[in-house]
Write a structure and sequence with these properties.
α4 packs across α8. Helix content is about 80%, strand content about 0%. The protein has one domain. The protein is mainly alpha-helical.
């Protein structure tokens, strides 16, 4: 019973921080115009990237930061800058150059969209990475640590299922709705990116 509660707490915390539901408008905007088959492939790529990212930091996150002399705060600042650049393009109604460039082929573009910015840093960002590392550190037994890893898997699968439902949302919104939603999401992303940078600076300087 205690182990199950540990799993539920870890899953709830990760789901709230990764917020895959909040990623749906971004997913719709960056995949607008692509085929359903490609959209499913992008959703799978996002799921795999989120899973691998969170599992990696859960297992060796502290060692990675120590080895490269970096920190979660630095990751937060870098992720915030990337999102802000993307938000500016979305506010102007353009496809962000962070998501796609004119020189890239379609296949490469789709792969890039899935990894950056959807999976990283929008879903598996600094907050999710920090949460995973903290839960692993607070789990004394192997069984409890396994529950945290299982929570990561479940959140990744949940993200995939939520992104798959985005197609139905797009059909109801239409082209005009997508354009409006893109600009609205751009404003939200701008505020999120600024907050990520602020949090990173506060953490780095102990403010």
């Amino acid at each position: 019973m205690i182990v199950l509660k540990h799993l539920l707490y870890a899953y709830a915390a990760l789901f709230a921080i990764t917020n895959p539901i909040g990623a749906v408008p971004v997913f719709l905007s960056v995949t607008h115009g692509v085929s359903l088959r490609d959209r499913v492939r992008i959703a799978k790529k996002v799921m795999i990237t989120v899973l691998l990212t969170l599992l990696t930091f859960a297992l060796i996150g502290e060692w990675i930061f120590s080895f490269f002399g970096s920190s979660v705060d630095a990751f937060s600042i870098a992720g915030g800058i990337l999102l802000f650049r993307m938000a500016l393009d979305m506010l102007s109604g353009q496809i962000s150059k962070v998501k796609i460039s004119e020189e890239e082929a379609e296949e490469i573009t789709l792969e890039d969209i899935a990894i950056i910015p959807l999976a990283i840093p929008l879903i598996s960002g600094p907050g999710a990475i920090t949460t995973v590392m903290l839960y692993m550190a607070k789990s004394p037994s192997v069984v409890e640590k396994s529950m945290v890893l299982l929570a990561v898997l479940l959140v990744s699968i949940t993200t995939y299922l939520i992104l798959l439902s985005a197609d139905k949302v797009e059909k109801k919104l239409g082209k005009v709705g997508i354009k409006v939603l893109t600009r609205m999401m751009g404003l939200i992303l701008a505020s999120i990116s600024v907050q990520m940078v602020i949090n990173g600076i506060k953490g780095a300087f102990g403010v």
